[in-house]
Amino acid sequence: DTEVTQTPKHLVMGMTNKKSLKCEQHMGHRAMYWYKQKAKKPPELMFVYSYEKLSINESVPSRFSPECPNSSLLNLHLHALQPEDSALYLCASSQVWDRGAGYTFGSGTRLTVV
Amino acid sequence: AQTVTQSQPEMSVQEAETVTLSCTYDTSESDYYLFWYKQPPSRQMILVIRQEAYKQQNATENRFSVNFQKAAKSFSLKISDSQLGDAAMYFCAYRSARSGAGSYQLTFGKGTKLSVIP
Hints:
Largest interface: A-B, 25 and 26 residues
Structural class of chain B: mainly beta
Largest sheet of chain B: 6 strands, mixed
Structural class of chain A: mainly beta
Radius of gyration of chain A: 13 Å
Order of helices and strands of chain A: EEEEEEEEEEE
Strand content of chain A: over 45%
Oligomer: heterodimer
Number of helices of chain A: 0
Mean pLDDT of chain A: 94
Strand content of chain B: over 45%
Distance between the termini of chain A: 36 Å
Low-confidence stretches of chain A: none
Distance between the termini of chain B: 41 Å
Helix content of chain B: under 10%
Radius of gyration of chain B: 14 Å
């Protein structure tokens, strides 16, 4: 299995809703990432988990709450989002020890906040 | 901090022809990795090719090759025999080889949108 699977593919939520994005990989990668990508822009790093511990939080607002329950799963809990949070949310994974291997990305969740 | 610059927002190429996408970067490090990622309309970021800074030999993957000029801090991507499926946004990216939290950062350029004309 050489894939990163993200669900759902599309999500529309109101500003008072609570929802979660899910990411799963079975490649044995111990680093997992959340990126946010606006249209026609490069991805922006949000969070990094290394060995299931939060390693980097790029000053992301608290309405985004990541969780890494095990080495294969990464969640992003969403609450009280704003319309400007509408974007493509990409999950990625990589080997911790092989920095030259690159990241494996999922297909993303297209989030629309109304 | 490292920066990656892609100076061509859009490019087009005739099917079966060759096209070169430009990328320059700025870093004070001597050991690092460079990548080209492709993002088609399907949205998934796909790794096209990678280069290790300490290797002088340019990387090649089938129709994709790079021209890595370390002194000039240049990392261009050449696509030969272009196909319709090559149409996508292409991102150049930099990753430090040092240990620690900084090595998790993948610094992207702003991207080049490639169109392939039948």
